[in-house]
Amino acid sequence: MDDLSYGARNKRGDWAPNEPASTAPVFTFPPQPLKFLKWLPHYFLPYNVLFALSAVAWWYFVLPEPEVMKALAWGWVLKLFAANAIAVFLFFGAFELKLYILRSQGNRFKYNGKFPAEQCSKAFFFERQNVDNMLRTFGTGLPIWTGIEVFVLMAFANGWVPWLAFAQNPVYLFVLALLVPIIHETHFFLLHRAIHWGPLYKWVHSVHHNSVNPSPWSSLSMHPVEQFFYLGTMFWHLIIPSNPIMALYQLHFAGFGAIPGHVGFDKVELGEDTAVDSHAYIHYLHHKYFEVNYGDGLIPFDKWFGTFHDGSKEGEKQMQVRYEKKKARLNAKAEAKKSNETDRAGA
Question: Residue 286 sits in which domain range?
C-alpha cells in the first residue's frame, strides 16, 4: 500500500495521517447518528470481539471448575500463568515479528520513522528498549496479571461477590459486555491522569514513558505499581454485579488491548490492498508529547478537560498555549515562594 495516499512523511521520516485524530462519535452533542452508525463496527471489530472470545476460551479451556478455584493451588495457578504468558508472547510477538523484526511493511504507516532496535539508551536494561520491555512484561507484568486474575476468580468461586448467571441475566450481562470498553476508558483516564502528577510520574510512570518510540513490547512495560493499578481494572467486577467471564473480558481488554495503542503503526497491512487500522495515533501522540491525550478517545475526556491533541498544527498551537500557561503558573509559584523566604529572612 502507498502510505503517502493516506498521510505525509516529514524530513525525519516520521509519518502522520492526513486526517486529524478524532474521538468516537458516542458522547457528542448534538448526536451524530449517521456518523455513529458508520463508526459502530469499529467498536466490535477486530479487537473487542477477539478479547471477549479469549475470555470465553480461558473460562472453558484454561480454568478449572469453580470448586477448585475456591482455594489456592499451584496446579491451576501455574497453568493459568503459563496460558497468560504464552498468549502474550504469541499475540504481542506476532506484531513484533511482522512489523519490527521482519519489517514486512518497512516503515509504511509508521509514526516514528526510526525503529527502537536502531537506538540504544541507558534508560533501558542493557540499553535495549525491546529487552527492557520484555523483561518488565514477563518479569512483573505477567505475575501481577495472573495474581489479580486469581484473586478475582477466587472471590467469585467462594461467593464473596455476586455471581450473575447468563441464563437468568442475559440482557444485563449483554449490556455489561458492551460497557466493558467504557469502564476501561474511564479507569484508564483517571489512573493515567493521576500518575502524571509530579512525584508519581517520576517514580512510577516515567518507566513507561522511557519508550518514546513505542513498539508492541512497550504495551505492558511499566513500573509494577502502574501494572497493578492498570490491570486492576478487573477489580471493578467485584463492585459491579457481574460474572467471572465478564471480569476476564475486562482484564483481557486491558492486557491484550494495550497492543493497539503501542504498535507504532497507523495501519497493519494484511495484503497489497488491505490493512487493519490500529487506532494508535491518539496514544502515540501522548508518548510523543507527554501531557496530551490521557485517554484513548472512546470517551472525549481530553476534549472536556482541554488536553486533547489531534496531531494537527492547530492542535500543536493549543498544546503550546497550555505549556506557556503552565510555565507561567510555575514561575509565579516560584517567585511567590522566593518572596516569602526573603520576607522571613528579613524578619
Answer: 3-17+24-311
